[in-house]
Each structure stands twice: as C-alpha cells, then as structure tokens.
Amino acid sequence: MDNWTTSHDRVLAQRYAEGWMFLIEAARDMRTTGAIAPSGTALARALTEPVRARAGRPLDILEAGAGTGAVTRVLIPRLPRGSHLDVVEANPRFADRLRHLAAAHADADAAVAERVRVHTARVEELDTNRRYDVIVSGLPFANFAPGDIEAIMDRYLELLRPGGVLTYFAYLGTRRARTLLASRARVRRHRAAEEVLAAYRRRYAGGCRTVWANLPPAEVWRLQRPAATPTPAPTPPRPQPAAIGAADR
After folding, report:
1. d(CA 134, CA 50)
2. With 0-12 CB in 10 A as exposed, 13-18 as middle and 19+ as buried, what is 33?
3. Number of compact structural domains in the chain
4. Alpha helices in the chain (DSSP H)
5. Which of 18, 78, 162, 208 has the most CB atoms within 10 Å of its CB?
6. Is the pLDDT of residue 109 over 70?
7. Domain with 42 in it
8. pTM higher than 0.85, yes or no?
9. Residue 127, SS3 per DSSP
10. Residue 243 in domain
11. pLDDT grade, residue 38 (50/70/90)?
12. 208 lies in a domain?
C-alpha cells in the first residue's frame, strides 16, 4: 500500500469521526454548534480567501467558532511567515480537538507551536491586547438572539485593525425552512437577528459570494473595518498685522 493511499484513508477516517462528533455536539447544544456537519473544503477556502490575498506579509488572524477545525486545517498550512493565529472555541470538547490538530501540525513544523493558540472561550470574553488583520467567523448567527449578535459583531469590529477584514457565512434556504417549521416567536426572533446582520452589512460589507459546493450551500459575507483616516494637521494661526506704535507715526 503506497503512502498516498494510507494518507487518503486517514483523511476519510478523520472526516468520518468529525461528522459523528458534530452530530453528538449538535444533539447536546444545537444553538452553539449550529450545524450537523463540519464546513466543506470549498466553504473553508472561501472564508479564508482574505488570508491568501494578503499572503505577502505577516498577519494576525482570529478564527472564532472553529468547531472541529475544518477551517483551522486550511488556515495553519497557509499562514504567512511571521503570522499568528488565535483560535477561539467555546465548546471544550471541540477546543481539545483543535489543540490536537495544532499539535499535529507543530510536529511537522515546530514554528506552528509558537504561532497558533487555541482559547476555550466565547469571542466576547477573549482576553487579548492583539488586533487582527483577518477574522474568520464560524459562529451560527442564525441561532443567536439579536442582542448576542450585536455584542459579537461589535467585539469583532473592536478586534479588527483599521482596514481589517471579517468573513462569516450563512446557509442558504434556512430562513424559509424556519418560517415553515418554527413557532411565530422564533420566526420573529430570526427576522430581528437578520435585521441586525443586515445593518452591519450595509455599513461594512465588502462583498458576498455563494458557495454551491458546500452541503448545504452557503453565502460567505466579507465585511471590512474602515481604514484609519489621518487626523488633519491643525491650521497655523494667521499672522496678525503689527500694531502701529507712536514711533511709526
């Protein structure tokens, strides 16, 4: 058996295990897990596109709601030299798995151990002085109350450097499914949550693309914090005409 076959079988086994783990965690808490399967490769690549676009310089990157690491697995090998990645995951079982993932990459590249940190926390509670060039969000906004979404989005904008980029995704077709299946109170909550996100998109949106190759298909939104505007230099006072003294008369 060649190396490619054994590696391919290992990847399939890993994805199978992750799929079952997602199902178990979704059964425990669908609100924070938000899906019944990890993000596909196409969705992960779309979410991390701003990292590839800025690959020529060191970056500070934050991934929030990393789950079992479908996006993390794409990010780590593509970190530009000198970059740092903070991974935030509130589910302690997912966070442990993410640490194993980072450790496996560190075995192959010792620099990863210094560049990747996994935090078991909610992003609103993340204790850091670092500001980020790119934030990748995997949080299930459709499951959150409007006030929670606003708190998270405000925290993202606080953590972004001026000119920094945030990406997040939303599954297609879920709004109509919820309208048909959810209670009226839940439908109203979902609409209010969508209005909160729409307000941020109107102010900060830098683009949107649809990833049809994911299951289910998803929209990936890109928001950008405005670049800092240099403070104009104060206008020097205009010289006043000299007073005419008695000697000048």
Report:
1. 7
2. buried
3. 1
4. 3-28, 30-33, 41-47, 49-53, 72-75, 92-108, 112-115, 146-159, 174-181, 184-204
5. 18
6. yes
7. 3-229
8. no
9. coil
10. no
11. low
12. yes
Residue owning tokens 């890109």: 222
- Structure tokens, 42: 């196409």
Q: Which residues of 87-100 are buried (b: 16+ CB within 10 A; e: fewer)?
A: bbbbbeebbebbbe
Buried b (16+ CB within 10 A) or exposed e, 104-120: ebbeeeeebeebbebbb
User: Is 247 within a domain?
Assistant: no
93 Cα distance to chain centroid: 20
For 40-56, how does the pLDDT look when each residue is reduced to its tens digit (9 = 90+)? 889 999 999 999 999 88
List the helix and strand counts (H, then E) for the chain. Answer: 10, 7
Bridge partners, 32 (sequence order):
none
Please report the pLDDT score of residue 231 as a whole number.
Answer: 52
**Is residue 127 a part of any domain in this protein?**
yes
> What is the CATH number for 116?
3.40.50.150
φ and ψ of 120, to 5 deg: -85, 95
Alpha-carbon distance 211 to 218, whole Å? 5
CB atoms < 10 A from the CB of 20, how many? 9
Q: Which of 112, 192, 122 is nearest to 159 (CA)?
A: 122
Burial of 139 (0-12, 13-18, 19+ CB in 10 A): buried
- Token representation of residue 188: 């109203």
Q: With beta carbons less than 8 A apart as the criterion, state whether 214 and 42 touch.
A: yes
